[in-house]
Amino acid sequence: MPAATNKDDLIAVTDKEYGKLEKLLETIDADFALEKDDEDTSIKDVIGHRAHWIELFLGWYNDGMAGKEVFFPAKGYKWSELKRYNGNLREQQANLSWNDVVQLLEQNHKKIRKFMEDHSDKELYGGPMKGANNDWTPGRWAEAAGPSHYRSAAKYLRARIRAQKK
Question: What is the value of pTM for the model shown?
Answer without folding.
Answer: 0.93
